[in-house]
Design brief:
By secondary structure, the protein is of the alpha+beta class. The strands form three sheets. Strands 10, 11, 12, 13, 14, 15, 16 and 17 form an eight-stranded mixed beta sheet that branches. A hairpin with a 6-residue loop joins strand 1 and strand 2.
Length: about 350
C-alpha cells in the first residue's frame, strides 16, 4: 500500500507551513501543503514518520485516490466521498499545536478550531492515520474527527490543563514538595539532591535518603518522572491510569553517587525514546560492563514494583493517577537473556540483598 512520504522527500512545490517539536524533543509536527492539498506528519527526530493525516483539499476532489500523486511525494488528495469540501477549500489559516502530556500525540488547531489529531497510536504502516475535521468516514489518509470527538475531547482538555499548569509559576516547586514529603514519611529524611534533567524536559531530580530507622543502606529515588504520564502505555495496558506514572528507586550500601548514575541513564528515557517503563521491564547497561554502577558482575537492571525486604513506597497520586515506584534491581547478562522470554523466571532468585548488601 502506498503511504505518505517522510518529510525531506517532498515533491516539487511543496512547502512547510508549520514545524513544531514536542516539549521533550522526541516528536515533531510538520504541516505541508502545495496548491492542491495539505497534510500533517508526526515525525521522529531522524525523520521517520509515525503518524500522518490529510487535512484539506484546495481544489475539487477527484473521484478516487490519486496514486500517481502519492508516488511523486506530494500531499495526498482526499476522494470526493471522503471530504466535507468536495469543491475544495482555501489554504489553511493560523495554525497552532497542542501536545499530549505524554508527548506522543498532538492536536492541530486552525484559527483556534480543532482541525486534526494525530494520536500516539497512529501508524501509517497499519493504515491507522490521524483524525481530520474535514474527513468523512475512513480512508488510508484520515479518519473522521467528528466521529471520534467524544473520546478525544477529554484527552485534549487534560492536555490543555496540564500544560497551562506546568507553565505556571511554582508548578514544579509544588510538585517536588509533594513527592519529597511522601518520601519523608515512607523512608525518612532527605540528604543530598541532584539534578538529573540537564535542563531538558522532563525535569527530573534525585533525592538521597541516608541510612536511618535501623536501615543500614541509602535509598535513592527520582523526583519528577511522575509529573507527566509516560508515552505509549495505553497501547499495551487496559488501565493506563494505574501504570502511566512512575518514579525509580534504588537501595545501596555503597557511595550513593555511583547508584545515582542509573537515574541519569533512565530518568528521562521514556519521553526521549517514546516508550514506557513498568514492572518486569529490563534494561541493559549502555556502556562498558566494568562501569555498571551496581558492580561489574551485572549488566543491567530489572524493574520491580515491589520486592520483599525493601520499603513500600506506594501511596502517592498525581493528576488522578497512582504513582508506581519501580526498584532497579541488578541482573547479570545471562539473566537479561532469560528475561527476554518472561521476567517471571527470574523472580525466585531475586532478593533485596542484591541491593542492600551489594551482592
Amino acid at each position: 500500500m502506498t503511504t505518505f512520504r517522510p518529510s525531506g522527500m517532498r515533491g516539487e512545490g511543496v512547502e512547510v507551513v508549520l514545524s513544531d517539536v514536542n516539549p521533550y524533543g522526541s516528536r515533531t509536527l510538520v504541516v505541508e501543503r502545495d496548491e492542491i492539498s495539505s497534510v500533517a506528519y508526526l515525525c521522529a527526530p531522524e525523520g521517520t514518520v509515525h503518524g500522518a493525516v490529510w487535512l484539506a483539499n484546495h481544489v475539487p476532489a477527484p473521484p478516487t485516490i490519486d496514486l500517481n500523486r502519492l508516488n511523486s511525494g506530494l500531499p495526498p488528495v482526499a476522494p470526493r466521498a471522503n471530504t466535507r469540501h468536495p469543491s475544495g477549500r482555501p489554504p489553511l489559516g493560523t495554525l497552532r499545536s497542542l501536545w499530549f502530556e505524554e508527548g506522543d500525540g498532538v492536536a492541530l488547531y486552525e484559527n483556534d478550531e480543532l482541525l486534526a489529531v494525530i494520536p500516539g497510536w497512529a501508524d501509517m504502516t497499519r493504515a491507522m492515520p490521524g483524525y481530520a475535521r474535514d474527513a468523512i468516514g475512513e480512508t488510508p489518509f484520515a479518519w473522521s474527527l467528528e466521529e471520534a470527538g467524544e473520546g478525544l475531547s477529554p484527552r485534549l482538555a487534560k492536555a490543555r490543563a496540564y500544560w497551562e499548569w506546568r507553565g505556571g509559576d511554582g508548578a514544579w516547586a509544588s510538585f517536588q514538595q509533594f513527592v519529597m514529603g511522601h518520601l519523608d514519611r515512607a523512608v525518612g529524611s532527605a540528604g543530598r539532591f541532584w539534578d538529573a534533567g540537564g535542563g531538558r524536559l522532563p525535569t527530573v531530580g534525585i533525592t538521597e535518603r541516608p541510612p536511618e530507622r535501623g536501615r543500614p543502606y541509602t535509598i535513592l529515588s527520582t523526583v519528577g518522572m511522575s509529573c507527566q504520564r509516560m508515552p505509549t502505555v495505553e497501547q499495551y495496558i487496559d488501565r493506563p491510569d494505574a501504570y502511566a506514572r512512575v518514579e525509580l528507586a534504588v537501595a545501596t550500601p555503597r557511595d550513593p553517587r555511583d547508584a545515582a548514575r542509573l537515574f541519569m541513564w533512565l530518568g528521562q528515557y521514556p519521553w526521549h525514546s517514546v516508550t514506557w517503563l513498568g514492572h518486569g521491564h529490563t534494561a541493559r547497561w549502555y556502556h562498558r560492563p566494568e562501569t555498571f554502577p551496581l558492580g561489574s558482575a551485572y549488566s543491567g537492571v530489572i524493574m520491580l514494583a515491589g520486592l520483599s525486604g525493601l520499603p513500600d513506597l506506594s501511596g502517592f497520586t498525581f493528576g488522578g493517577d497512582a504513582v508506581q515506584w519501580l526498584w532497579l534491581v541488578p541482573v547479570t547478562a545471562d539473566e537479561l537473556q532469560e528475561a527476554a522470554d518472561g521476567y517471571e523466571v527470574l523472580l525466585p532468585r531475586l532478593s533485596a540483598d542484591r541491593l542492600t548488601r551489594g551482592t
